[in-house]
What we know:
Order of helices and strands: EEEHEEEHHEEEHHEEEEHEHEEEHE
Distance between the termini: 13 Å
CATH superfamily of the largest domain: D-amino Acid Aminotransferase, subunit A, domain 2
Largest sheet: 9 strands, antiparallel
Structural class: alpha+beta
CATH architecture of the largest domain: Alpha-Beta Barrel
Bound molecules: pyridoxal-5'-phosphate, 2-OXO-4-methylpentanoic acid
CATH topology of the largest domain: D-amino Acid Aminotransferase, Chain A, domain 2
Radius of gyration: 20 Å
Amino acid sequence: MNADGQKQALNWSELGFQYIKTEFRFRAVWHDGAWGEGELIKDEFIAIHEGAPAIHYAQQCFEGMKAQTGPDGRILLFRPDLNAERMQRTAARLLMPDVPTEMFVDAVLQTVRANASWVPPYGSGASLYIRPMLIGIGENLGLKPAQYYEYRVFVSPVGPYYKSPGLGMISLAVSEMDRAAPRGTGSYKAGANYAGGLLATKRAQELGANEALYLDSREQRFIDEAGSANIVIALKDGSLVTPKSEAILPSITRRSIMTLAEKKLGLTAVERPIELRKEIGDFAEAAACGTAAVLSPVGKIWFDGSWHEIGEGGQPGPIMQQLYDLLVGIQKGELEDNFGWLVAVD
Ligand code: PLP
Ligand code: COI
């Protein structure tokens, strides 16, 4: 809460997905083989050396998480340990030091707690987006790892990611550019993957789509993922499928959705290669999923020069509706958390 224990005076239900400055962020610096103490600070700017590997060679990575307010007023995080593990995996790939899980989660808890007045209230439809990041800083010129690293966590209240709030439909356009190679960095949350996708997103949006859909870079046949979300598909045979690929980000939302589909809806949930052109006729429903995207049903996909509709023309289907209700219900603390996914910020 702010000084007088009140929430900030924001129009919570009107928020989009933009940066709003909150009061505190966490910062810790790694040097000589160890992390320093770490602290909450107020300055949102980072002063780093002009030779820092983060800005030349993209030696940096990040995570994305959300905090929600439950009906009882508790602030809830969703599976933060998995974000910590994913950052460790990315850091290892980019030759950066580990942020241990306890340090990662503790910094998130401290940052959210310190900015409690910015956590959207229950029922507002908004949430607090959390952005942990790890950057290679210090003086450097040649292509080698940084001497120092900064781990930082900042937060911003956000509304829907796509301009189609709630369970509105989105559309995707297959990109002619690849996002990642099978043995490249596609399965890591490295900022470099996103810089390479900016032009693909722009092209997709010029076609009227919300974002780009990438096919596998070897043959351009199998679905990989969208620019900022994984894909799940309900087939007409009643099963739920999601792409198996070495080149996509292992989404925590998708993993949770697959578990909910199996354990709560009794569906067969399978991870396997999905051939877009051959299989689209079998799609009953499709959706993009991720922390920012939540679960956004996909109504149509552009490829080979035309739009291809999925399902019942423009309405969210029953499977995605149920999965959305289950996922968001658990994340907001409205439904029982049978899986031990929530961590309360107390
Ligand atoms: N794929 C990409 C490229 C992403 O940026 C994200 C967002 O984090 C996801 C998938 C979804 O991952 P998660 O559900 O862990 O947020
Ligand atoms: C997230 O969903 O947290 C992401 O990192 C996607 C980002 C491009 C907003």
